[in-house]
Structure formats: structure tokens, C-alpha cells
Design goal:
The chain starts with a helix and ends with a helix. The chain is built from seven helices and no strands. It folds into two domains: 3-87, Uncharacterised protein YqeY/AIM41, N-terminal domain (Hypothetical Protein Yqey, Chain: A, domain1); 96-146, Arc Repressor Mutant, subunit A, CATH 1.10.10. With 147 residues, the chain is mainly α. It is globular, with a radius of gyration of 18 Å.
Length: 147
């Protein structure tokens, strides 16, 4: 079952069980997926769906941080629940050792030796990570290993 189909099925289940938070989170995610499909005039691949979910996760993390700074525990609790729901649909993130191994393999595969090739290595590592690490994490690790 594709990730999109799983989201759709879980949305129906959430509606049946009257789980308002899950329903709202899944509806928003699916609407963003459909919007991208309309823009591209094609069904999205799994990695594209994961990228959309990662953007949703990033948004929730920003809301949590902003709520904490503003002293709004009610908003923070809601965003944390939404974040937990979204994380159920994403693959387990790479730990630091796995990320280092992945970036080192990309450096070896591309024969990169200098900081001039950071962009090339970063692009390849992002592709190979398949959404299991953020672009910022990958970029930082590439810089750490190449500079």
C-alpha cells in the first residue's frame, strides 16, 4: 500500500472513530499532496509524498518552538499531538553514524576531494537518504566531512 493510500485509509478510520485531531492533520496533509499533484498534473511518487509530510513536520516543530517562546502551552500541546501523528508516516530518521556513513559513501562514489564539490555531494546524499534526514542535516554533515 502506498503512503498516500495509507493516509487516505487512516483518514477514513479517523472520521469513523471521530478522532478530530488525526482527521484534521491527515486532511491537511492529503490536501497538500493533491495540490502538488494538480500542479504537476501527475500522481506523486512516494519520495515526493514523504517530502510533503516532512514539510508538515517542520511546520509543527516551528509551531511548538513559537508556542514555547510565547508561553502558550495549549498551542504547544496541540502541535505536539499533530507532530506525533505525522511522524507515524515517515521512515525512521537516520542516526548520526548512519548519516555519516551515507555521506562518506557519496563522497567516495563521486570522488569528491574539495569543498568545491559540496553541492554535488549534498545533492546525491539527499537523493540517497530518501527523506530519512533533513536537507539541513545532510548539508551540515557534508560540510563537516569535506571542509
Amino acid at each position: 500500500m502506498t503512503l498516500k493510500k495509507r493516509l487516505e485509509q487512516d483518514l477514513l478510520d479517523a472520521m469513523r472513530s471521530k478522532d478530530d485531531i488525526r482527521r484534521n492533520v491527515l486532511r491537511l496533509a492529503l490536501s497538500n499532496i493533491k495540490l502538488q499533484e494538480i500542479e504537476k498534473s501527475a500522481e506523486l511518487e512516494e519520495t515526493a509524498v514523504e517530502i510533503i509530510l516532512q514539510k508538515e513536520v517542520k511546520t509543527r516543530k516551528e509551531v511548538i518552538e513559537g508556542s514555547r517562546d510565547a508561553g502558550r502551552p495549549d498551542l504547544m500541546d496541540s502541535a505536539m499531538k499533530e507532530l506525533a501523528i505525522l511522524l507515524e508516516y515517515l521512515p525512521e530518521p537516520l542516526n548520526d553514524i548512519e548519516l555519516t556513513d551515507l555521506v562518506q559513501q557519496c563522497i567516495i562514489d563521486l570522488g569528491a576531494t574539495s569543498a568545491k564539490e559540496i553541492g554535488k555531494v549534498t545533492k546525491e546524499a539527499i537523493r540517497k537518504s530518501a527523506g530519512r534526514a533533513s536537507n539541513e542535516q545532510i548539508s551540515a554533515k557534508v560540510r563537516e566531512l569535506l571542509v
